[in-house]
Write a structure and sequence with these properties.
Layout (H helix, E strand, L loop, with lengths): L11 H12 L4 H11 L3 H10 L11 E6 L2 H5 L2 H12 L5 E2 L5 E6 L11 E3 L2 E3 L4 H12 L18 E3 L12 H9 L1 H11 L11 H9 L7 E6 L8 H8 L1 H15 L3 E6 L7 H13 L4 E4 L4 E9 L9 H8 L23 E5 H13 L1 H5 L9 E8 L5 E6 L4 H7 L5 E6 L5 E4 L17 E6 L4 H15 L5 H18 L5 H17 L3 H6 L1 H9 L1 H6 L12 H4 L1 H7 L14
Parallel strand pairs: 1-3, 6-13, 7-8, 7-11, 8-10, 12-16
Antiparallel strand pairs: 1-4, 2-3, 4-5, 9-10, 12-13, 14-15, 14-16
Bound molecules: iron/sulfur cluster.
Length: 585
C-alpha cells in the first residue's frame, strides 16, 4: 500500500482510507508500520485519524451506516427513519452491534439534499431512504451481501438540473478551451478572464484573474493548481453535478490555469462523501491523458501538467482553502495563519492557486468564448452566472443556474415553492432572509452565496432550524482556537436552554454577547460565521426568542429543585425550606 503511494507522507489520508476499508478501523499495528515506513510519528498519525470523522481507531461494523443530519434530511423525515432503521437493525445510533456486523451513526450533510433522506453505506452514497428501502437494506445486511452487489437503484444519484444558463448549457468539448488559450496566447487569455469579471464561486468572491496573476508573479517556480471540491456547506451539491456531468470543463479549467501560472501538478480535493464519483473522474482524467490533454507536452505546446484526485475523509473545515492544503499534505485540516496566502505559500509552501469547481468550469468556457461573453450576464458588480443547489420546501429541488441579479422571488417561483417562511442563502454560514425580503437579489452586492439555497415554508419552526445549524458548527469546529471550540459549544448550550424553555430575560442578552465573541475572535471563517444563524434570526424574529423565555429574572439550564433530591434524602429533610422554587414575576 505504501509503495502504491510512492512512500509519500502527503498520501497519508489516502493510505489510512485504504487501511480502514480493509479492516473497518485503523489497527495499532498499521499505525506503527505506517509510522516506520512513512517516517511520521505515531502521535501525528493518531491525531490525523482522530481529526477526520470517517477514520476510526476502534472497529466499525462491516456495514457502516451513516445517516445525514442535514436540516433538509430532517425535513424529509430523517428522525423517524433513523428510529426505524435503528430498531430494524437492532443497533442504536452511535454504536456498533454486538456481533460487529453493523454500525450506525449520524453524519453531517452528505450533499444529497435534493434526493434525501440520504446516507452513506461503507462510504457509498445512498439516496431516497424510506421504510421499504430500509427493510430491503436490513435484509441485505442479514444475508451479508456485499454492498457492491446491492441493487444499483439504491445508489443512484441524479443531477436534477432544472435551469441552465451559460455554464450548464455549454457544449464545450474536451480540449476546446485549451486550444483557444494557446491560439489566443496565455497573457491574452488571462486578460479575457480578467474582463469576464469572474470572481471565486466558493463564496468568498476573490477575483480569479487577480489570484492567478499573483501566483504567476511569484519568484518560486514550483507551483500548484488545486480544485476545491470539498463542498460541505449543508444544502450545497452543485459541485457534485458539475463533477458528474461537466468534469471535462473542470479539468480543462485547471489545465488552463496551469498553463497561465506555470504549474506542473494539480489536485482535485474531492469530499469523501462523493466517493461514488471517484472512478468516474479517474476515467475522465485517463481519457484526457490519452487525448494529449494531460501529461507531457499537452497539445504539442510544451505544457507538462497532470492532475491527482485526493479524497477527503469527513471534515467540513477542509473546505477552507488553507485547511484543505494541510489535508492534501496528509495532515489534520487545521486552517493556517494568513498571510501568507496560498498564492505565495500554499501546497508544500509553494505558490498555489486554489479555486472552486464552478470557478474552473467557468474559466474553461471563458477561454473558449471570451470574457465579454461571460460579462454580458449578471450585474455591474457581479458578472456572469451562479449555479445554485436548491433544496427544502419546494416541488423541484435540484440545480439552477441564473445570471447574478435575479431576485429570490423569481427563484422561488421557478422551483415551485409556496407559503415561504424564509430562505437560507449560502448555507448555515450564509444569510437567513424572511419572506419580507424576497425582492433582494443574488449577487456579491446583496446576497452572496457559494450555492446553497434552502427553502422553508410556514410549517417549519425557525428555532429548530437554528438549532440544527448551531449543532452543525459545534460538531464541525476543528478545535484549534478557543473562541470557536468553546464558543460554538456554548452557543449550542445557550440556545438549547432558551429553546427548551429554561431561558429567562438575561439569557438572550448572554446569547447575543456570545455571538459577538465567537464572530469577532475566531481564527477562520467557520468560527467567524458560526453564529450567523442565531444573529440573523435574532434580528428578524426577536419576539420568537422572547416568547420562549420564562417571566423570571433567572432560570438555570436544568431543574434545580429536582437536582437537590439526593441532598434532601441524605439530610432526611423534605420541608419547605429544603425546596427551591422560582418565583414568576
Ligand atoms: Fe478551527 Fe473554528 Fe478556530 Fe476555524 S475558527 S480554526 S474551525 S476552531
Amino acid at each position: 500500500l505504501v509503495e502504491t503511494h510512492a512512500r509519500r507522507p502527503t498520501r497519508l489520508l489516502a493510505i489510512l482510507r485504504a487501511v480502514q476499508a480493509r479492516y473497518f478501523h485503523i489497527p495499532n499495528q498499521a499505525i506503527r508500520l505506517l509510522s516506520k515506513e512513512l517516517n511520521i510519528p505515531t502521535t501525528r498519525i493518531i491525531g490525523v485519524i482522530e481529526f477526520y470523522s470517517f477514520l476510526h481507531l476502534t472497529p466499525r461494523g462491516r456495514y457502516d451506516i451513516l445517516i445525514s443530519d442535514s436540516i433538509t434530511d430532517h425535513m424529509l423525515g430523517k428522525h423517524n427513519l433513523m428510529d426505524y432503521l435503528s430498531n430494524k437493525l437492532s443497533v442504536s445510533p452511535g454504536s456498533v452491534r454486538e456481533d460487529g456486523l453493523v454500525s450506525l451513526d449520524n453524519t453531517s450533510c452528505t450533499g444529497m439534499c435534493d434526493q434525501g433522506p440520504a446516507g452513506l453505506i461503507n462510504g457509498h452514497a445512498i439516496t431516497r431512504l424510506d421504510r421499504p428501502r430500509i427493510d430491503a437494506i436490513a435484509q441485505l445486511i442479514d444475508e451479508q451481501m456485499a454492498v457492491e452487489d446491492w441493487p444499483k437503484e439504491f445508489f443512484e444519484v441524479g443531477d436534477n438540473i432544472y435551469q441552465s444558463d451559460l455554464l450548464l448549457s455549454s457544449r464545450l468539448t474536451a480540449g476546446e478551451g485549451l486550444q483557444s488559450t494557446f491560439a489566443r496566447g496565455l497573457k491574452e487569455t488571462l486578460s479575457e478572464i480578467d474582463q469576464s469579471g469572474l470572481r471565486g464561486r466558493g463564496g468568498a468572491g476573490f477575483k480569479t484573474a487577480m489570484k492567478w496573476r499573483f501566483c504567476a508573479e511569484e519568484s518560486e517556480q514550483e507551483r500548484y493548481v488545486v480544485c476545491n471540491a470539498d463542498e460541505g456547506e449543508p444544502g450545497t451539491f452543485k459541485d457534485r453535478v458539475l463533477l458528474n456531468s461537466y468534469a471535462d470543463h473542470v479539468f480543462e479549467g485547471m489545465t488552463i490555469c496551469a498553463a497561465l501560472i506555470g504549474a506542473k501538478r494539480g489536485f482535485l480535493y474531492l469530499r469523501g462523501e462523493y466517493l461514488h464519483l471517484y472512478h468516474k473522474l479517474e476515467n475522465v482524467l485517463e481519457q484526457r491523458r490519452q487525448n494529449g490533454l494531460l501529461g507531457n507536452n499537452i497539445l504539442g505546446k510544451g505544457l507538462d501538467f497532470d492532475i491527482e484526485i485526493c479524497l477527503g475523509a469527513g471534515a467540513y473545515i477542509c473546505g477552507e482553502e488553507s485547511a484543505l492544503i494541510e489535508s492534501l499534505e496528509g495532515k489534520c485540516g487545521i486552517p493556517r495563519n494568513r498571510p501568507p496566502y496560498p498564492v505565495s505559500q500554499g501546497y508544500l509552501n509553494k505558490p498555489t492557486v486554489v479555486n472552486n469547481v464552478e470557478t474552473f468550469a467557468a474559466t474553461a468556457n471563458i477561454a473558449l468564448h471570451g470574457g465579454a461573453w461571460f460579462a454580458a450576464k449578471g450585474t455591474e458588480k457581479s458578472q456572469g452566472t451562479k449555479i445554485l443547489s436548491i433544496s427544502g420546501d419546494c416541488a423541484r429541488p435540484g440545480i439552477y443556474e441564473y445570471p447574478f441579479g435575479v431576485t429570490i422571488r423569481k427563484i422561488l417561483e421557478d422551483c415551485d415553492a409556496h407559503d415561504v417562511l424564509g430562505v437560507q442563502i449560502g448555507g448555515p454560514s450564509g444569510t437567513f432572509i424572511s419572506n419580507q425580503e424576497l425582492d433582494r437579489i443574488l449577487g456579491f452586492e446583496d446576497l452572496a452565496t457559494g450555492g446553497s439555497f434552502i427553502v422553508f415554508n410556514s410549517t417549519r419552526n425557525i428555532l429548530d432550524i437554528v438549532r440544527n445549524f448551531t449543532d452543525f458548527f459545534a460538531h464541525e469546529s476543528c478545535g484549534f482556537c478557543t473562541p470557536c471550540r468553546v464558543g460554538t459549544s456554548l452557543l449550542k448550550k445557550q440556545l438549547d436552554k432558551i429553546v427548551d424553555g429554561h431561558g429567562s430575560a438575561g439569557d438572550v442578552v448572554a446569547l447575543e454577547e456570545l455571538t459577538r465573541l465567537v464572530k469577532n475572535h475566531s481564527h477562520c471563517g467557520l468560527g467567524q460565521t458560526a453564529a450567523n444563524p442565531i444573529i440573523h434570526t435574532l434580528e428578524r424574529y426577536p419576539d420568537l426568542y422572547q416568547s420562549q423565555l420564562k417571566k423570571i429574572s433567572y432560570e438555570p439550564g436544568f431543574d434545580l429543585n429536582a437536582s437537590l433530591e439526593t441532598a434532601r434524602r441524605m439530610a432526611n429533610r423534605n420541608d419547605a425550606g429544603a425546596h427551591l422554587a422560582q418565583v414568576e414575576e
